[in-house]
Each structure stands twice: as C-alpha cells, then as structure tokens.
Amino acid sequence: MTKGQAPRKVTPQEASRSVRDPEDRGLDLPSFMTQRDYTRQLDRFLTGRQIALAGGDPDWQRRIQRRFGAVLLISGQPGDDRMLKEASLLVVNLEDGKTPLVRWAITEAKENNCPILSVGPTNLNGFAKAIVGRVSG
Q: Which of 27, 42, 48, 102 gives a 20 to 30 Å CA spacing to 82?
C-alpha cells in the first residue's frame, strides 16, 4: 500500500473462504504433490514374495525391477513357467497389446492359479498403487 492509498476491501467470498477453512490459504497443490506414496506399502507386501511382470517397454520394466527387487521379468520367448509358479501375482502391461508372450503368461498364470493384474504404462508410485489396491482389496 502506498502513501495516501485506501486499504483494499475484502470481498464476501474472500471472507467466507477464510472463515470456512482456516488452513486453506488458497494454495492449490497439483495432485502429484499431494498423492500418497504407495511404494513403501508395496515393499512391505513383497517381503518374502515375488511378482512377475510381462509386457510393456523394456526400460519401464527395468525401472520397476530396479526399484522393487522382487520383480521377475518375463521376457523373450514363451516357455519357462517357473517364474509364474514362484510369483504371488502376475502384472501385465498391455501397452503393446496382447503379444504372444503376454498371452502365454496370462494362460500360464491361470493354470497356476496365480492372480493377474493389468496395468498401463505408469510411474513407480502408480505401479505400486495398482498392486497395493489389488492385494489389499
């Protein structure tokens, strides 16, 4: 406020907003800043367990595997179902559609009574959230 300038009047909307929620200071955070971190919950779930991952971009698969060590990557050619027998859950990324490898993994998982979860390309927290939601719900 400069010298000789009258103070600004508060509008009724501004006044009701400050009365309505004293914690709200008009700061609207983007959803990614207020989103809950599910990666630690997935870490706890994976203690003593493994999940199998089929489909999706190889770089995406490697990022998932680096962050969550108990992830078995099903890649290459269909044929070895040992990973699915050891897995608590098969996660399939259908970003590239149902490739022969993904179709094989789904068939083998069904035969081994291994639950299946379909995800899209997502970040680490989105991946963790999908799994935590599936296993806890």
A: 42
Domain borders along the chain are 38-136
6, exposed or middle or buried, with CB in 10 Å at 0-12, 13-18, 19+? exposed
Task: Please work out, in degrees rounded to the nearest 5, the angle formed at the alpha carbon of residue 108 by the alpha carbons of 103 and 111.
Answer: 130
pTM: 0.69
Residue range 38-136, CATH number: 3.40.50.10190
Rounded to whole angstroms, how far apart are CA atoms 113 and 65?
A: 23
Residues 6+ apart with CB under 8 A from 74: 52, 53, 54, 83, 84, 101, 105
pLDDT digits (tens, 9 = 90+) for 64-94: 999 998 888 887 766 666 777 888 999 999 8
User: SS3 of 135, please?
Assistant: helix
